[in-house]
Amino acid sequence: MVRYAGGISRFIPLRRANKDSSTDWVLDKKELECLFNSKTKIIIVNTPHNPFGKVYKKEELAHVADLCKKWNVLCIVDEVYEWIVYEPNEHIRMATLPGMWERTITVGSIGKTFGVTGWKMGWAYGPANLMINLQMVHQNCIYTGVAPIQEAAAIAFEKAMTNLNQKNCVFKSTSKELIVKRNYMAKILCDAGMEPLIPEGGYFMIADWTPLESQVDLSSEKDKFKDYRFTKWMIKNVGLGAIPPSAFFSQEHKKQPKY
């Protein structure tokens, strides 16, 4: 989409500072700063992060915000997992940081918020002068939303807001339900000999499978990247499906993951 608009995409990977959890993956500040210049128009930020499950800390977002303000850059922030954050972590909305509301478009998802991922509908909010352009693109590319799903989303929000201070409110209950499954999945992966990264948010978990590399024969799989070969081997021999993380990486960073 950026190329079609005449732009150039520049990518920065999360880099591993430590080993055990998604919080240990960070943006290198100097590397990020070097990507900003007078031609930079927009940065896209994803928190909680998919697939690592990293929840950006306030100081991390503040650094991005400072660069946006310094170089007059807009920020599109993907916060579709904002209601799936595990204690003691806290989701910080980029648009709430000083000077960021007027330059931020925030994206949400009914599928992630209410557990209906097959319903491909979401929302975006921001200042009127930015939203008018987004509405124009939406009108000419998609034309309209699906009215029955919009109605269902409105009802879901009304019920959630009615129960906002109750334990059964979906904004609170989802994380409490999923953290039990997260911990169970981590134990299964550890018992199998893998090294899981414990996510702070979202419902995906990344695991380093390479401790098992000597125990599996991937010679029958011909994909370029090893994580693709392993996931195909696992489907055929174990009956377990997974997503190769290199699918999430830009071309120049595809060799980085081993998960």
From TrEMBL:
<dbReference type="InterPro" id="IPR015424">
    <property type="entry name" value="PyrdxlP-dep_Trfase"/>
</dbReference>
<feature type="domain" description="Aminotransferase class I/classII large">
    <location>
        <begin position="13"/>
        <end position="245"/>
    </location>
</feature>
<dbReference type="InterPro" id="IPR015422">
    <property type="entry name" value="PyrdxlP-dep_Trfase_small"/>
</dbReference>
<dbReference type="GO" id="GO:0097053">
    <property type="term" value="P:L-kynurenine catabolic process"/>
</dbReference>
<dbReference type="GO" id="GO:0016212">
    <property type="term" value="F:kynurenine-oxoglutarate transaminase activity"/>
</dbReference>
<comment type="pathway">
    <text>Amino-acid degradation; L-kynurenine degradation; kynurenate from L-kynurenine: step 1/2.</text>
</comment>
<dbReference type="InterPro" id="IPR051326">
    <property type="entry name" value="Kynurenine-oxoglutarate_AT"/>
</dbReference>
<dbReference type="InterPro" id="IPR004839">
    <property type="entry name" value="Aminotransferase_I/II_large"/>
</dbReference>
<dbReference type="Pfam" id="PF00155">
    <property type="entry name" value="Aminotran_1_2"/>
</dbReference>
<keyword id="KW-0663">Pyridoxal phosphate</keyword>
<dbReference type="GO" id="GO:0030170">
    <property type="term" value="F:pyridoxal phosphate binding"/>
</dbReference>
<keyword id="KW-0808">Transferase</keyword>
<comment type="similarity">
    <text>Belongs to the class-I pyridoxal-phosphate-dependent aminotransferase family.</text>
</comment>
<dbReference type="InterPro" id="IPR015421">
    <property type="entry name" value="PyrdxlP-dep_Trfase_major"/>
</dbReference>
<dbReference type="GO" id="GO:0005739">
    <property type="term" value="C:mitochondrion"/>
</dbReference>
<protein>
    <recommendedName>
        <fullName>Aminotransferase class I/classII large domain-containing protein</fullName>
    </recommendedName>
</protein>
<keyword id="KW-0032">Aminotransferase</keyword>
